[in-house]
Design a protein that fits this description.
alpha/beta, Rossmann fold, DNA polymerase, domain 1
Length: 240
Amino acid sequence: MKDPADTVQVLAFDIFGTTVDWRTGVAEQVAEIAAERGVALDAGALTDAWRERYLPSMARVRSGERPWAFLDTLHRESLDELLELFDVADAFEEASRRRLVRTWHRLPAWEDVAEGLHRLRRRYTVVALSNGGFALLVRLIKAARLDFDAILSAENARTYKPDPSVYRMAAELLDVAPGQVLMVAAHRWDLEGARSAGLRTAFVERPAEKGPHGVADRAADTVSDVATTSFVDLAELLGC
């Protein structure tokens, strides 16, 4: 197999978990909003349960069980159900629920991301490729000051990763062959989808992604062209 550094022109980065720390960011904002409402709520538990509904909700769209819906819509549906399950639904009116959904629009980047992206952009086209909606991604990337050349959303393909059409869409929009794109992600399912579409893959280990009680994907359990521990490590491996 050829070295990715010799064939790749584009690096496509997953966002939630790979580039930004969704668990810390969402949990802290949920706790703040709950405190304002005077609600006793385990923000970490709610955040974990919310994320657990992430893949199943998108799977229903991919399968055709339900029509296309933006990630914000899927997040809102999951949130409404969870507030009932946590027995706090009456404490959150419409405006508060909208704020809770928007917590996914403002998340902190992992500490290695800024330097890694800066170095990688010297040699490659560097883009975001996420299941987040376009408006969500613009807000998130601007707030986190992430240095991407472009933002690509599953919204463009009207389906969700790991559907192969999302990855092929990215290659088509950037006018490169699928094999000239390196998908960078911290999730096995994302890289498997990218491989099925003909992309090269790089796994970035994020052991803290799911918080103190969650178990993140590991490099040892993932098939990829490159395995790294950070964006800076990836830059080193690709000669940047």
